[in-house]
Write a structure and sequence with these properties.
Layout lengths: L4 H25 L5 H22 L8 H25 L5 H7 L3 H12 L7 H18 L10 H25 L6 H22 L10 H29 L1 H5 L5 H13 L5 H17 L8
């Protein structure tokens, strides 16, 4: 039986809130941990939370070569690489701007589909919606001003991270979803394999701490792992299964609104008029992508 459309729309809204808040938690956790450390603990806490859910549901964790291979690749492109790049970038730029640049993910998804996953070709309406969302993102960034005082390497890291996300969404739909694994099992394997790869890099690449841990940084990394990674990816897989990778990736053109508001309220980051306008345009683009704007066919 096909799931009602309302189900994935609700999942979409929840995921946008969770991942929008994640940029705040990354920034706070980065006060104590280096970028690779943020990534390792984020994935580890996420995997532990999912392991508990798996055991409570009495689900089986398959250890077949096919399942391990595809979830390992998904773990690298959807977790280990982009998480580290975002954590690095937020050492140099605001969490709100990081959330805004992440809105480019749907464009990268469309490009990946057109190049490597042509069986998942996006519809014309989805392309229009993504285009509107990207216009909103450009307004949010204030592109007519350039990057201003922002570190070009940090911006480059964010763009590279969105490229990984763009490849990961259709990869999951093509290779991981057909495995028929429960969502929390698939994400658990993804995070566990990525954690195992990241651990030696974290231990050998530099200092284990870059600041004094406090309750804010500890709470941020635990929340980022359990909710922002473990629970969030379960919602993400559900959206991919129900609506496709293009729609799932379009959550990133809504979450900047959450990221900007939290950055302004909690971290006192500056909010400009064009960020408000851009946020509204992004929301409109997401609505088009979801097929909720009826006059666009």
């Amino acid at each position: 039986m096909t799931k009602p459309t309302r189900n994935w729309v609700i999942d979409f809204a929840i995921l946008a809130m969770i991942w929008g808040a994640s940029f705040l938690f990354i920034a706070v956790a980065g006060h104590a941990l280096p970028p690779v450390g943020v990534t390792f603990f984020r994935m580890t806490f996420g995997a532990l939370a999912l392991f508990v859910l798996i055991k409570l549901a009495k689900q089986r964790i398959p250890l077949t070569g096919k399942a391990l291979l595809h979830t390992f690749v998904a773990g690298l492109v959807m977790s280990a690489f982009p998480f580290t790049l975002f954590a690095y970038a937020e050492l140099h730029i605001g969490s709100g701007l990081a959330g805004m640049v992440n809105a480019a993910t749907p464009v990268m998804t469309v490009l990946a589909i057109m190049i490597a996953f042509r069986d998942q070709k996006p519809t014309r309406v989805q392309v229009i919606g993504l285009g509107v969302g990207i216009i909103g993102t450009l307004v949010l960034l204030g592109v007519w001003q350039g990057f201003g005082d922002n570190d070009p390497l940090a911006i480059g890291a964010l763009i590279l991270a969105t490229m990984f996300y763009g490849f990961g969404s259709p990869y999951i739909r093509k290779f991981v979803s057909p495995l028929g694994l429960p969502n929390q099992v698939a994400v658990f394997l993804q995070l566990t394999s990525a954690s195992l790869v990241t651990l030696p890099v974290y231990l050998l690449s530099g200092p284990l701490l870059i600041g004094e841990p406090d309750w804010a940084s500890i709470g941020s990394i635990v929340t980022l792992g359990v909710v922002g990674t473990g629970v969030a990816y379960v919602f993400y897989y559900r959206i991919i299964d129900a609506a496709g990778s293009t729609v799932a990736s379009s959550v990133t053109i809504v979450q900047p609104v959450v990221a900007v508001i939290l950055g302004m309220l909690v971290l006192q980051e500056k909010l400009n008029w064009y960020e408000v306008v851009g946020g509204l345009v992004i929301i409109f683009g997401a609505m088009i992508t979801q097929g909720r704007v009826k006059f666009i066919r």
